Amino acid sequence: MNTKRRQFSAEEKVKILKRHLVGKEGISDICEEVGLNPNQFYRWQLEFFENGVAAFERRGKRENVKVRKLEDKIVSLESRLHHKDNVIAEITEDYVKLKKTLGKPKRLGRS
Fold it and tell me: Which of 38, 45, 67, 75 is most buried by a 10 A CB count?
């Protein structure tokens, strides 16, 4: 059997849920029409209600949280970069010291 799973976009999911919640259509009727398992419908409904608070939050508050997370990530990455720069500097310093202590190799056959 070569059956592909259907992928529903977020907009399609909301339209399907709205048909039941606003249009008062039966879940089994909707699911049969769109080829959806009722268990999946109930999972979407649960997720919809659990994340519904986000629709009513102030947009600025959500954007501030995103900006703060990005700023924290930048600080973390800059810290890691600074650490790597220090490690490279230490290795380079050790390399130069080692090169000086070993000196240049003498060439054979020439006086």
Answer: 45
How far apart are the C-alpha atoms of 14 and 23, rounded to whole Å? 12
pLDDT for residue 28: 95
Domain positions in the chain are: 7-56, 58-102
The closest alpha carbon to 14, from 34, 100, 79, belongs to 34
Query: Cα separation of 93 and 99, whole Å?
Result: 10
Record the tokens describing residue 87, joined without a space: 């490690």
- Tell me how crowded residue 7 is: count the other CB atoms within 10 A of its CB: 6
Using a 10 angstrom Cβ sphere, with 0-12 exposed, 13-18 middle and 19 or more buried, the burial of residue 16 is: buried
Mean pLDDT per 10-residue section of the chain, whose length is 111 residues: 76 94 94 94 92 73 80 93 94 93 69 51
